[in-house]
Specification:
Chain lengths: 343, 537
């Protein structure tokens, strides 16, 4: 059974400011990842973008919720008429654009024909993902929603409405990622020369190896750990000071989180330069941390080299630096950003 | 001989000390994986030797420290009490000016409007900025502009006062505030906020006998044609209750109650997870004769969100709340619906203050059709997702267009039709992908009307460079789907399904049944939709 992806990127909302510049880039980038590392054949990855050139008015703008829901219908029908009740092994739902938060546990993507007073043109993420997950239409469901979760004057939700079984089928797994916690704003920024969502940039860094264990597995547990820690790395000091902007995503993974292997990729080792404390040029240095299944082990040691820098490749994580008999904590974050502080 | 720290699997104690009993403690390992969770004010974890990051979450604030655990620490890892954001100007919060505290303290002890006796409502609406004295105020109008208090009983309603006119407004510099205390007879009242765009928001406030209900509101910007305008932010309201008839910013228990509100606003049902939402110290507080009713209401809701409800404690809390506030408080009565052994509430004629309370009422309406009075069911406003509070909105104008024009369904009817699988059949009939020949021969209008899916997906397939492959895969699914057309849909609705519908639409079961009847009629009349037959089990 194939893996399937439905990837939606909407940035031209004729009657819903402010204008966005990132969702199409993000959707394209996720499409590229899912068809190269995500296990989805190109034929089963449905990339849906808004009108180009943009529609002049909302009533003529595409895509609409009806189109997305029709795709959902097709998958549901495939599942309900297949011998094992499944439409495939894994479903990716990736939605990027304007959105709102209708509850503590969900967010919705506004469709291109939405307006401030016509928010009913939306696709809620979680009810549809739950629908495919809990009914066993796919063994694994991954939902990524890169949109704001403002508390909107929400419309009645356009969910699938089926009674969700309380207990999902044995072995079923899901991972849901929202770019913002309830009530917060998701933002796009210039990242690697292109405008894109901060959440999607972090997600793709994670999936491309940033969140990988030493053996290359990106699990639900490591993806959560990476996303929680690293989204803020793309935000400016002004963003970080703004209470409305999301610094962390909102994530849910069906337990056991470390059993859900989302991808197998080469783990990213960052070429890190650790600044050493003043006066330690003539001191040996040691680095401890997690490796080879041990929570605390020696990672590396070097004799003094007359400098106040130590360059070495490291996985993301928190390490203990011992130099001059003193202990420091070194934190290596996504893209190799490194902090050194006293514990 | 000392064991080698690298190889020893021995666990070491790490004691974390926080300033608040409701602080949540999260212990992450060196790679950021979650290792342990707990609550303040002090918790000891047994951990493998390693490097950890300890996060303490207090209200809206997060503090973090790293710790290298290779030997038993001599001292607990200490975190100072966090100054979290709160609309109530409490001591030790990050959004309090001393002059706001003083204003709340003094103005809550005066009566600005007398409409009745036996209870009172106090409102403080304010802006807050970090450096208020060094800059011109960003809110130049009255912070309470657009706010009014109303008495609503059945179909009869009466405006009691306009808060901006009746209240005391700040006359000094700094961040502006307006305060207003209204003496009222005990009962349920409605605060209304007229927005710049013309919509009106409604929020319930309960005046209990002998108590003063205190509401604290920040302001926020709302979009309007004339540009952004500052009005009260109902979503971040803080509500406290005082039996002394005045606000005391230094009262420690108010901080605890405020943190419980933040927890309620940010935690959902725990489902299968066995994680508690209330620390043991908080349970002990609720087990004792607590004297802060809002703390009891928030605490009882948090108990209900846990996967295993502590029924005896819930029973005790609800009994205490009824003893303190009487049997007229809709939030307390909503909690009683879930309390084993509690006398049944009277039918609800007012909306509760908290959204979670309304959810309890909706859920119970499935098996108790008369639980919500006719007049409350008729109130036509639509709920707005606004933090922990139940807030609804009356639009300035009626909604002009309908969801599915050919079927002429209202928004709720369309959502219900989606729930029951009707819309899936409608889409099968109207959004089919025609053969390539038919598309080639169609006029642009025909394409636009009937081939939306084809147009959108085939174009996007080209954009993704997957071209004919993606189109072929989709076309195969569409062809199979078309062969499964149905003419009638029969839906059986049992209590479980009705509960799910009621929860999602946010309206009582009796109202859902009425909408279903209308939907059956409309679909029977429509040639484009399958007929619907609903059977209740």
């Amino acid at each position: 059974m194939p893996n399937t992806a439905i990837i939606v990127g909407i940035q031209a909302y004729p009657e819903l400011p402010p204008a966005l510049q990132g969702p199409k880039n993000d959707a394209q980038r996720f499409f590229e990842w899912v068809t190269t590392h995500g296990g989805v054949a190109v034929a089963d990855a449905h990339l849906i973008l808004d009108d180009d050139p943009p529609a002049p008015t909302a009533v003529n703008a595409h895509p609409t919720a009806e189109v997305i829901k029709y795709l959902f219908d097709l998958l549901e029908e495939e599942a309900q008429h297949s011998p094992d009740g499944r439409a495939g092994e894994r479903l990716y739902l990736y939605l990027s654009g304007h959105g709102f938060g209708q509850s503590l546990t969900d967010a919705s993507l506004l469709m291109a024909n939405a307006t401030k007073n016509r928010t009913r043109h939306h696709v809620p993420g979680r009810p549809w993902a739950d629908h495919f997950f809990a009914n066993g239409y796919f063994k694994e469901v991954l939902l990524f929603l890169d949109c704001c979760r403002e508390r909107y004057s929400t419309a009645t939700l356009n969910g699938p409405g089926t009674t969700i079984p309380a207990v999902p089928p044995a072995g079923a797994r899901c991972f849901y990622g929202f770019a913002a916690k309830y009530g917060k704003l998701a933002v796009e920024r210039n990242i690697d020369g292109k405008i894109g969502g901060v959440f999607t940039a972090t997600l793709l860094d994670a999936l491309n190896g940033g969140a990988a264990e030493e053996d290359g597995r990106v699990t639900g547990e490591t993806l959560k750990a990476y996303l929680y820690e690293n989204m803020k790395g793309f935000l400016s000091p002004a963003d970080l000071a703004n209470k409305d902007i999301a610094k962390e995503p909102d994530l849910y993974c069906e337990p056991p989180e470390n059993q859900f292997v989302i991808a197998n990729v080469q783990p990213t080792k960052f070429n890190v330069t650790i600044p050493l404390p003043a006066g330690s040029e003539a001191s040996d240095r040691q680095l401890f941390g997690e490796a080879n299944g041990k929570k605390y082990t020696k990672i590396d040691s070097r004799p003094a080299d007359g400098t106040l820098e130590w360059k070495l490749p490291l996985l993301r994580g928190t390490y203990q630096l011992i130099v001059n008999g003193d202990s420091w904590v070194v934190t290596v974050k996504g893209r190799g950003m490194t902090d050194v502080a006293k514990p | 001989m000392l064991p080698n720290p690298e190889t020893s699997a021995e666990r070491l104690p790490l004691t974390v000390n926080t300033g608040d009993l409701q602080s949540e403690i999260v212990v992450l390992d060196a790679r950021g994986r979650l290792v342990e969770r707990g609550f303040g004010p002090e918790q000891t974890f047994q951990l493998e030797k390693g490097i950890y990051r300890v996060k303490v979450l207090t209200g809206t604030e997060t503090q973090e420290k790293s710790v290298v655990l290779v030997e038993t620490p001599r001292e607990p890892l200490r975190f100072a009490p966090a100054a979290f954001a709160s609309a109530a100007p409490l001591a030790g919060t990050s959004t309090s000016h001393e002059y706001h505290m003083a204003a709340a303290d003094s103005e809550s002890r005066k009566i600005h409007v007398r409409d009745g006796v036996g209870s009172s409502l106090f409102f403080l609406v304010r802006d807050w900025t970090p450096n208020a004295w060094n800059q011109a105020p960003r809110v130049t109008g009255n912070p309470a502009q657009g706010l009014s208090l109303h008495a609503v009983k059945g179909e009869v309603e009466r405006q009691i006062c306009d808060l901006a006119v009746a209240g005391q407004r700040s006359s000094q510099g700094g961040d502006p505030w307006t305060a207003c205390t209204i003496g009222v007879t005990p009962g349920v009242y409605e605060l209304r906020l007229k927005l710049p765009g013309g919509d009106t928001l409604h929020q319930t406030f309960v005046a209990s006998p002998g108590w003063q209900s205190q509401a604290f509101l920040f302001v926020r910007e709302y979009a309007s044609e004339a540009g952004p305008q500052w009005r009260a932010d109902l979503s971040r309201t803080s509500v406290l209750l005082s039996v002394t008839g005045g606000f005391s910013p230094n009262e420690e228990i108010l901080r605890v109650a405020e943190l419980a509100k933040v927890a309620l606003a940010t935690k959902g049902p725990q489902g299968q997870a066995s994680r508690p939402l209330l620390p043991e110290e908080m349970r002990m507080l609720l087990r004792g004769k607590f004297d802060n009713p809002m703390l009891g209401i928030y605490g009882a809701h948090l108990l209900l969100l846990e996967s295993r409800v502590d029924a005896p404690l819930l029973q005790l809390v609800v009994q205490n709340l009824r003893d303190m506030l009487g049997r007229e408080h809709p939030d307390v009565e909503a909690l009683a619906l879930r309390t084993v052994g509690a006398p049944s509430p009277q039918p609800f004629e007012h909306l509760p203050m908290l959204y979670r309370s309304w959810s309890l009422i909706l859920d119970a309406s499935v098996t108790q059709p008369d639980l919500v009075t006719e007049s409350l069911m008729r109130h036509g406003a639509e709920p707005v997702a606004e933090g922990p509070w139940y807030i609804d909105r009356t639009p300035a104008t009626d909604k002009a267009d309908l969801v599915t024009e050919p079927l002429e369904l209202s928004e709720v009817e369309a959502a219900l039709a989606e729930d029951l699988g009707i819309m899936k059949e409608v889409r099968r009939n109207t959004l089919t992908m025609q053969s390539e020949e038919a598309v080639a021969g169609a006029t642009p209008a025909e394409k636009g009307a009937t081939n939306l899916l084809f147009a959108t997906l085939s174009e996007s397939a080209l954009k993704s460079d997957s071209g004919p492959h993606a189109y072929q895969s989709l076309r195969d699914m569409v062809v199979r789907n078309e062969q499964r057309k149905v003419s009638d849909v029969e839906v059986q609705i049992d209590d479980t399904k009705l509960r799910a519908i009621v929860a999602r639409l946010g309206i009582p079961a009796t109202q859902v049944k009425k909408v279903l009847t209308n939907l059956e009629d409309k679909l029977t009349r429509s040639p484009q939709a399958p007929n619907l037959k609903v059977l209740f089990k």
